[in-house]
Amino acid sequence: MTSMTRPVSHAHFDRFVARIATSRAAVATAEADGFRVAIAGLPQFTGSLAAARDDLRALATAYARLGRRILDELHGTFALVIVSLDANELLLAVDRLGIETLCFGEANGEFAYASDANEVAASLRGPAALTLGTVGGLEPQAIFDYLYFHCIPGPATVYRGVTRLLAGHVLRLANGQVTVEPYWSPSYDETRRAPLPDLEREFLSTVEASVARAIDGATKPGAFLSGGTDSSTVSGMLGRVTGAAPRTYSIGFDAEGFDEIGYARIAAKRFGADHHEYYITPSDLVASIPTIAASFEQPFGNSSVLPTYYCARMAESDGIDRLLGGDGGDELFGGNTRYAKQRVFDYFDRAPSAVRASLRGALAPAFWSAVPIVKKAQSYVRQADVGMPDRMQTYNLLTRIGPETIFTPAFYAEVDPDGPMKAMRAWYARSDATTLLNRMLAFDFKYTLTDNDLPKVVTACRVAGIPVAFPFLDDAVVAFAERLDPDLKLKGFKLRWFFKHALRDFLPTEIIHKTKHGFGLPFGLWLQRDARLKELAFASLQSLKRRDIIRVDFIDRLRADLLADHAMYYGETVWVLMMLEQWLAAHGA
């Protein structure tokens, strides 16, 4: 992007530092060679930047000499702001996975930036009320995207005129010109081959070193422990690195099919953990939903944020000063079931066109639909005929029901219903990977991690008052995964084959072979059983009716029919709409 703007104000720099400091996160500042520098997060300074570990002025000096090339030697998690003393030059950059954040916007010649979108929007909007369609006000397309994704993917934000700096991107303002570009993106070496024992040793040592870096500076670290392979690995490595019993924290649910705390106990026993558990109840949700919804800078609809919050709160009350999360393992090493599913469809894509045409013709007659196995084959061909990444959205609620039946005509007229798919296709096409798996992994770096999972964990931990780090997202682990043969990540249809094989002597066998679950929330089930939870949810839906965003008849049908027929599936829809209304109400809309 390019535009003309006035010199930046040092007031935004000062507010950035003050806001980070009050959120109990790490922030450092310095001034040298005509530049002011502020950096938040857990940065790692390498190469010519090594001196900045002890004196941040070295970073300002390096920038005066190297410019944006300093980002080649800056690793870890960070939000970096560098502004010249004469306010004519500005650099903003965030880490490679966007764990730390920066947002920016421009209105009436003023360039504003901050660690979150709220502050930028308030600066652009001034004293005006928060309304739809105005600069600094609500962006209709972003609200549509929220219903589509249950979050708002960057670079958009819920505010018109406010942009999120994407992961691995840098913004530079100089001579009145603003440019935004990537300084890093996933890049896959799909030709590298190495002996399996050598790869396993490298992997284990890399993960162990990443855990050591993640707890650097912490005096009492702990770890989330869901009982899955990722959190169990991080917990075990935490014990190995510290030489002490790892402190681990788990959430349980009194709901069949959701409670997996038994696996967490297996991992805790294996590693001799100082283990802590908490069982969430519907009453916990009623007590915390308004707070959690309001705490996000924009609407956020991933319901597992509540278990994450209670887990982090438990750790904070125990005196933990940094909590380690296992996020990223699936998106690095091929652990999501959709990777295997899409490989099945890929076989059809790669078949000769004549074979595909013959199969379509053979399955075309309508009478075949009465035969279950043929009906399944027809469904397979229909899905296989849809290109990537569109095929991954086959079961999206908006596409299945039809957005025109959900949104009011007036609101729907303001949005592009194909906007989400256009953005996903563009991002999917950016990858330099040639294999289907690595292209999906690169896609999920953004849409699963940066846009969804990481804001969930970071915000939940911030509200609980505890810093969080992600060892699997350490730059060295990411680089190892980029070089790993994709056929070792997904071997046939075996998810995370290399990951599990390398950890076969480290993790309990039960965890190696368990199916993925995590901190899923039985909201739909509880909504049917708990009167107070239902009252909160339905009151939110009733309030949402007045906003002319969601059709009244859809909300009524959701409450009266859809939820009763499919509590788990449409319970998620109730959650997403409830959290939207809770956020809007909390932010004065």
Strands of the widest sheet, in order across it, are: 1-2-3-4-8-9
What do we call the CATH homologous superfamily of the domain at 10-182? Aminohydrolase, N-terminal nucleophile (Ntn) domain
Helix content: 40-55%
How many beta-strand elements? 14
Keywords, separated by commas or semicolons:
single chain; 589 residues; alpha/beta; Glutamine Phosphoribosylpyrophosphate, subunit 1, domain 1; five-stranded parallel sheet; 25 helices; globular
Folded structure, characterized:
By secondary structure, this protein is α/β, with parallel strands linked by helices. Among the domains are: 10-182, Aminohydrolase, N-terminal nucleophile (Ntn) domain (Glutamine Phosphoribosylpyrophosphate, subunit 1, domain 1); 523-586, no CATH class. It is built from 25 helices and 14 strands. The strands form 3 sheets. A 6-stranded antiparallel sheet has the order 1-2-3-4-8-9. The protein has a 5-stranded parallel sheet with strand order 12-11-10-13-14, with helices on both faces. The longest helix is centred in the C-terminal third of the chain and has 29 residues, at 436-464. The model has no long low-confidence stretch (mean pLDDT 91).
Please summarize what this structure is.
This protein has 589 residues and is of the alpha/beta class.
